[in-house]
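Hi support team,

I've been running sequence recovery on a batch of backbones for a student project. Most finish fine, but this one hangs at about 90% for roughly twenty minutes before it completes. I'm not sure whether the input is malformed or the queue is just slow. I've pasted the structure tokens below so you can try to reproduce it. Let me know if you need the job ID as well.

Thanks,
M.K.
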């Protein structure tokens, strides 16, 4: 057995997940980085526009991808680089969702692939305040010089996976998944299933159980499914009420206050004018700090990571 995989990271042109404009790829063979790659591409025709929010994150503009191949032309090259290896991504629900959504609007069949999520694995490996890529990269001892540069993000995901494997003494991707009590994701022309936490060690369950108030028919493979989510600060792209509706749609429970049931705190813009004098954090954020000190497992998620995890 060998630890062979292809780490992948997409950046998108706009709010639609199926609008890839760049991809970073890192091929790892026998636990060592063998080759890296960075490609620009044009999104599918109907979604070929660039939002200021996305451009502000990754710096890729419409002019930069002019003349580049569209996604459906670029996809075979991505698959050729991967050479049939499993894909690994940090928040694979987003990156594999990019492929699926872009395939759908391009009238292309889903490719066949096995994949793993370092976000899911990291939650089963280290007790961190946040599981966003910079935090997990630091825990793994992996450098992240330019967050939202797809090649750098893919390289960080590769190094995170290697660090998680080393932490658990695993020598293959299957062993990493087993050590983290997770299943690997699968995708093919017939459909897909996510990389998610099992109900119990060795179990075959489908993620977290539903909670009251959440959509009981939501996809249990969604990374927010079954989690109680609280928001603090001002969100950039939606109102608080819309955010509540969106998380309920995917099977999560929105809540107004931080309690011992809280699993995720989403951090919007912290306006100093509404904070107590001399304080940099909201009351909700301070309460999360107290609960973390008591040993509670709560993830603090910046708005941009929440949006990518939510993924329309």
């Amino acid at each position: 057995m060998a630890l062979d995989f292809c780490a992948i990271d997409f950046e998108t042109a706009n709010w639609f997940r199926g609008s890839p404009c760049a991809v970073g790829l890192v091929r790892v063979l026998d636990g060592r980085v063998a080759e890296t790659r960075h490609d620009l591409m044009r999104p599918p025709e109907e979604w070929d526009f660039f939002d200021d929010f996305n451009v502000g994150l990754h710096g890729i503009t419409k002019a930069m991808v002019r003349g580049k191949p569209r996604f459906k032309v670029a996809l075979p090259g991505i698959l050729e680089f991967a050479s049939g290896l499993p894909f690994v991504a940090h928040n694979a629900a987003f990156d594999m969702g990019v492929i699926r959504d872009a395939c759908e609007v391009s009238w292309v069949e889903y490719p066949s692939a096995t994949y793993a999520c370092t976000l899911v694995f990291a939650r089963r490996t280290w007790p961190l305040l946040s599981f966003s890529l910079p935090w997990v990269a630091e825990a793994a001892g992996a450098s992240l010089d330019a967050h939202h540069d797809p090649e750098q993000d893919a390289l960080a995901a590769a190094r995170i996976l290697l660090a998680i494997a080393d932490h658990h003494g695993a020598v293959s991707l299957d062993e990493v998944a087993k050590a983290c009590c997770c299943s690997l994701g699968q995708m093919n022309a017939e459909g897909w299933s996510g990389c998610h936490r099992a109900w119990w060690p060795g179990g075959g369950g489908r993620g977290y159980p539903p909670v009251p108030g959440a959509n009981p028919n939501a996809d249990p493979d969604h990374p927010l499914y079954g989690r109680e989510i609280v928001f603090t600060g001002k969100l950039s792209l939606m109102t608080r009420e819309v955010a509540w509706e969106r998380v309920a749609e995917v099977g999560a429970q929105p809540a107004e206050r931080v309690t011992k049931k809280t699993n995720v705190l989403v951090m919007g813009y912290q306006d100093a004018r509404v904070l107590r004098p001399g304080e940099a954090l909201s009351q909700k954020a301070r309460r999360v700090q107290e609960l973390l000190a008591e040993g509670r497992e709560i993830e603090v998620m910046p708005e941009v990571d929440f949006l990518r995890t939510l993924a329309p």
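--
Follow-up from support: It reproduced on our side and the slowdown came from queue contention, not your input. Confidence is low (pLDDT under 50) at residues 199-212. No action needed from you.
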